């Protein structure tokens, strides 16, 4: 089965790739997670300060700069408190932030410890950027902030933790980011279950739906029939029509392969975009016959919106 997001492929590295990996590891070792977290915290305060009618956010950012001996940064934060002049001055900072976030993402990919250290600050920054009405900004500010959003999405797809569960003869592993959000899952499915959804499961579905948009439901990553009552780690906000049509047909294919063919299914699901409400869902699966031989490999990318389709390969 393919590796989950950010897992290293199982192959011997070439000298050049090994050297590159060593360089990345060395770079990660040189990154101070606490110092990087302060950089990211200041970014969030500066971005919040663009829309804060009081000087609180800019003042807090300025104090951090002074504490760190960054007198230029403190001066920009002080100037940012001046109406009209402030936002223009802040562009001097925003222009450098995409580079800092790129550094943070690279360090996080190489070091789970760095990812966990900067995770809370990245989550607050993501909230601050998410609250920005990009469509209402002047071009200069919008062009400065949009690259930050891209890098934050990249960080959200960095896996730092894996949670596993065995249900009967099914084994599932969920990969989570530094914020504890599930970004992907892989599973080996050998049987289905007919189990009522617990009150805890229903509450988790409601919470997932609440993170989404209109017409979303709390969708399962690995269907409840294969992994009953696994809670929030197995949920995401999913368009309701997508959930009840294409994704259900996909799960029906897996269930019929298991129950009618006596085979198993190896599944990998990865999210694209913000895991809080992914833009796309990538699904790859292998159909294994009762003798353990691979029969077919199928890949599908769905948009998380209405109108998605899935044409079953078997059991039509």
Break the fold down into its secondary structure elements and pairings:
Elements: H1 15-30, H2 33-51, H3 56-67, H4 71-80, H5 85-110, H6 112-130, H7 139-156, E1 161-167, E2 170-176, E3 182-189, H8 199-210, E4 216-220, E5 235-239, H9 240-244, H10 246-261, E6 264-272, E7 280-288, E8 294-303
Antiparallel strand pairs: 1-2, 2-3, 3-6, 4-5, 6-7, 7-8
InterPro entries: DNA/RNA_non-sp_Endonuclease_sf, Endonuclea_NS_2
Organism: Ottowia flava
Pfam families: Endonuclea_NS_2
What does this structure look like?
The chain is of the alpha+beta class. The protein has two domains: 31-156, no CATH class; 161-303, Extracellular Endonuclease, subunit A (Extracellular Endonuclease, Chain A, 3-Layer(aba) Sandwich). The protein is 48% helix and 19% strand. It contains ten helices and eight strands. The chain has helices at residues 15-30, 33-51, 56-67, 71-80, 85-110, 112-130, 139-156, 199-210, 240-244, 246-261; strands at residues 161-167, 170-176, 182-189, 216-220, 235-239, 264-272, 280-288, 294-303. The chain has a six-stranded antiparallel β-sheet, covered by helices on one side. It has a two-stranded antiparallel ribbon with strand order 4-5. Strand 7 and strand 8 form a beta hairpin. The protein starts with 14 loop residues before the first helix and ends in a 13-residue tail after the last strand. Residues 1-17 have a biased composition (Polar residues). It comes from Ottowia flava. InterPro entries: DNA/RNA_non-sp_Endonuclease_sf (IPR044929), Endonuclea_NS_2 (IPR044927). GO terms for molecular function: endonuclease activity. Residues 1-22 are annotated as: Disordered.
């Amino acid at each position: 089965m393919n590796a989950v997001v950010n897992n290293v492929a199982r192959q011997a590295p070439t000298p050049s790739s090994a050297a590159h990996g060593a360089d990345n590891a060395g770079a990660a070792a040189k990154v101070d997670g606490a110092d990087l977290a302060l950089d990211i915290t200041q970014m969030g305060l500066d971005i919040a300060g663009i829309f804060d009618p009081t000087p609180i956010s800019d003042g807090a950012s300025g104090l951090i700069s002074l504490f760190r001996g960054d007198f230029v940064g403190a001066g920009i934060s002080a100037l940012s408190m001046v109406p009209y002049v402030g936002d223009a001055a802040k562009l001097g900072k925003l222009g450098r932030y995409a580079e800092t976030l790129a550094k943070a993402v690279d360090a996080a990919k190489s070091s789970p410890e760095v990812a966990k250290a900067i995770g809370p600050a990245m989550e607050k920054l993501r909230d601050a950027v998410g609250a920005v009405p990009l469509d209402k900004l002047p071009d200069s500010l919008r062009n400065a902030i949009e690259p930050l959003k891209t890098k934050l999405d990249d960080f959200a797809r960095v896996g730092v933790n894996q949670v596993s569960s065995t249900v009967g003869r099914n084994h599932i592993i969920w990969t989570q980011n530094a914020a504890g959000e599930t970004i992907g899952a892989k599973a080996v499915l050998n049987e289905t279950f007919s189990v009522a959804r617990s009150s805890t499961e229903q509450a988790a579905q409601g919470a997932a739906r609440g993170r989404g948009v209109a017409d979303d439901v709390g969708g399962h990553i690995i269907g409840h029939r294969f992994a009953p009552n696994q809670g929030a780690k197995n949920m995401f906000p999913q368009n309701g029509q997508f959930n009840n049509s294409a994704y259900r047909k996909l799960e029906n294919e897996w269930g019929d392969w298991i129950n009618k063919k006596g085979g198993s299914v190896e599944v990998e699901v990865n999210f694209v975009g913000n895991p809080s409400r992914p833009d796309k869902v990538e699904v790859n699966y292998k159909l294994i016959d009762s003798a353990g031989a691979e029969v077919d490999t199928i890949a599908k990318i769905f948009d998380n919106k209405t109108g998605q389709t899935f044409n079953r390969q078997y059991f039509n």
